[in-house]
Design goal:
- With 265 residues, this protein is of the alpha+beta class.
- Helices cover 22% and strands 31% of the residues.
- The chain has helices at 2-24, 95-104, 115-127, 205-217, and strands at residues 35-36, 75-77, 83-86, 89-92, 108-109, 140-141, 144-145, 148-155, 159-171, 177-191, 197-201, 222-229, 235-238, 244-247, 250-256.
- Strands 1, 4, 5, 8, 9, 10, 11, 12 and 15 form a nine-stranded mixed β-sheet that branches.
- Helix 1 (2-24) runs antiparallel to helix 3 (115-127).
Length: 265
């Protein structure tokens, strides 16, 4: 019986790949978005040291915070315009530095959704093994899909910590872009809208926000961090799959230490 259930789970995971591809490739239908499931606990954050020395802290950053109000969309949307995951973090820094700090914290960039990566995901789902850079479906802010995507702690194709990152039109006082992030934890696979499987996420999205913040702080690349109120406290919402999540409504803002070579933005 357990063997049969295992095979069904692997087939469902493979079918998940079909759902992601159908919803993400150009000209195709709605993006399958995560759904919430209760009872999950966050995995332990893994802090890794930075791989190179950043520039000296900028004294001006001890003054006025770079971001004082939430001036970006508060909730992401699916390709079809359905509300999805809440924005729960923001970063100030160049794109190169953002990519580096996630790498230093042990987060891996997600592969783009292509036929090849879809087949690799399906093969991993059916045969077992790991795919730590597996692709993820698109969500949207500013009428465009995420600019960057990272994940860690991948357990096959069923569970992982993952996040999507968008560049906003905002700049900090150093002229660096402000990035916003929607971070959630995939915990299982379920049948979603349109009879296609999708990932379930833990409804406790604040825990994933805190895991990401701890990871980035552990690198030594964060000059200052603080919180802004984005959604109402104890906000309860539903993502694109119609499942609920709860959040205290705060966005953690992390200002990265200015780099001596800040030319790449």
């Amino acid at each position: 019986m357990s063997g049969g259930m295992g095979r069904l789970g692997r087939l469902a995971a493979a079918w998940l790949t079909v759902g992601v591809v159908l919803g993400t490739l150009p000209g195709c239908g709605r993006v399958a978005s995560p759904a919430a499931v209760g009872g999950a606990t966050p995995r332990q954050a893994v802090g890794l040291p930075a791989s190179y020395r950043v520039g000296e802290p900028f004294a001006g950053m001890l003054g006025t915070p770079a971001v004082r109000v939430v001036d970006w969309p508060r909730i992401t949307r699916t390709k079809a315009g359905v509300l999805a995951d809440p924005v729960n973090l923001a970063l100030c820094g160049s794109e190169r530095h953002v990519r580096h700090v996630f790498g230093a914290a042990g987060w891996l960039p997600a592969d783009p959704v292509t036929l090849g990566t879809a087949l690799k995901t399906a093969r991993t789902a059916v045969l077992g093994g790991s795919y730590p850079t597996s692709p993820m479906s698109d969500l949207y802010l500013y009428n465009r899909r995420q600019d960057l995507a990272f994940q860690k702690n991948a357990q096959g194709t069923r569970a992982r910590d993952h996040l999507r990152v968008w560049r906003t039109p905002l700049l900090d006082q150093l002229g660096r872009p402000v990035w916003v992030i929607a971070a959630t934890e995939d915990v299982a696979i379920k049948w979603g809208p349109g009879a296609l499987p999708t990932h379930q996420i833990s409804p406790f999205v604040d825990r994933e926000r805190e895991l990401v913040a701890r990871d980035l702080l552990s690198t030594g690349h964060v000059a200052r961090h603080y919180a802004l109120q984005s959604l109402p406290a104890d906000h309860q919402g539903h993502n694109g799959g119609g499942d609920g999540y709860v959040t205290d409504g705060r966005v953690f803002v992390l200002e990265l230490v200015p780099m001596k070579d800040a030319s790449a933005r």
